[in-house]
Amino acid sequence: MAQTVTYVDRLMDVLSVVDGDFRVQVVFTVPPHPFGDEVPALLARMGCAVIPWEEALQMEFDLALAAGRIGVEGIRAPLVTMPHGAAYLKRVLGTSDPGVAGLRRVDLMAAGTPPAAVVLPHRADLRDLRRQCPEALPLARVVGDPVHDRIVASLPLRRRFRRALGLSGGRKLVVAASTWGPWSSFSRFEALLPRLLGELPRESHRVAILVHPNVYSGHGAYQVRSWMARCRQAGIALVPPDADWRSVLVAADCIIGDHGSVTLYGTLTKAALLLAGPAAEEINPASPAAALARTVPALSPGHPLVDQIAYAAAERRGTERAAIAARITSEPGRFVRNMRSLLYRLLGLGEPAHAALTEPLPAPPSWQALVGPGRRSA
Predict the structure, then answer these.
(1) Pick from 263, 327, 325, 249: which is nearest to 298 by CA?
(2) 270 and 141 assigned to the same domain
């Protein structure tokens, strides 16, 4: 069930476990979603078989996978739910059903009954699930995190990824990353972008912007590109929502991020981290994102950006950072194996007679492709 671009990204990591198995046919359907406008075109580019939502509601399936809750009550199939980002980072406030997004009763029991399985990345998530939807606790399966495992498997490819981005001669890559919503760093980009343009020497630094796909869906891709036009003209790269941002993260020297998943996944890389903006009200206080907000140096408006990047690189605090990274998953390196076992059990099929392997990430697009044709490459 492909509601948004972000959900599609997570589903593709999961569906890799059935690659090569002629017994399994994968089809997609696109439930209506406020941030789902780009999904049909994305699925078409990938060559996916898509069943119209109205038809899917009339059919029965052997298994359904969903990384979001909208529409799940209408599908007739055993349902597997999963997070679409790192851990369960956000909480929902000001509603009749507050709590940790993805683990509330309204998230898991929209049809009145629990799903077939609730996929969790870390055993610590069981506490939130027990508190918010105890009916689903017997169906919880701690399987790990696919993005964690693919980033870790790709760390030895860092030099290759940097070459693909044209990073040579000691040039540093600074990645400005934002989640979406009123507490995101994107809502404060008008203060950050001039600093990226004016304070980082072009001969020694390159800058890439990673914006959550929901920002594109909410404002329109044209509008986002328009807002970033001056930056792109100056040679700053805008990573499109359908590009694999994870390889850009592996290549980075510094990540200036907020409370979203990208910053948390950055703890797995060699990049220095700076937190742009105050800790968000929507952070789940029990999540690793909350620990990250207490640990990572905060971007200061009154000190030179180059100096702050150097300070963050010197203050990596390896032990604390490693502890935060370890909260992403309690099954490091085992997501593919665990998820394959779960899906095949629910499908009633024997697993394929070969090891389940974690695939490294693809190389990022070239820098010129990210900057855009005719743009000056900084």
Answers:
(1) 263
(2) no
pLDDT score, position 250: 98
Arithmetic mean of pLDDT over the chain: 93
How many domains are contained in the chain? 2
Q: Where are the alpha helices (DSSP H) in the chain?
A: 5-15, 39-45, 53-56, 105-108, 125-132, 146-154, 158-164, 189-199, 213-219, 221-227, 229-233, 245-251, 261-265, 288-295, 305-314, 318-326, 335-347, 367-371
Structure token digits, residue 30: 């696109």
Q: Is 202 helix (H, G, I), strand (E, B) or coil?
A: coil
The domain in which residue 134 lies consists of: 5-145+330-347
Give the whole-angstrom CA distance, residue 72 versus residue 3: 10
Task: Quote the pLDDT of residue 277.
Answer: 76
Q: Identify whether residues 130 and 11 lie together within a single domain.
A: yes
User: What contacts 97, CB < 8 A, 6 or more positions away?
Assistant: 104, 105, 106
Same domain, 235 and 115: no
Cα–Cα distance measured from residue 180 to residue 338, given in angstroms and rounded to the nearest whole number: 30
Query: Which residue's entry shows tokens 């800790």?
Result: 279
Q: Tally the C-alpha atoms within 13 A of residue 84's C-alpha that lie toward its C-beta.
A: 23
For the entire predicted model, the pTM comes to 0.95
pLDDT in tens, 259-286: 999 999 999 999 999 999 777 788 999 8
* Mean pLDDT of the region 12-38: 96
Residues 269 and 193 in one domain: yes
Rg (CA), the chain: 21
Pairing type for strands 117-120 and 99-100 reads unpaired
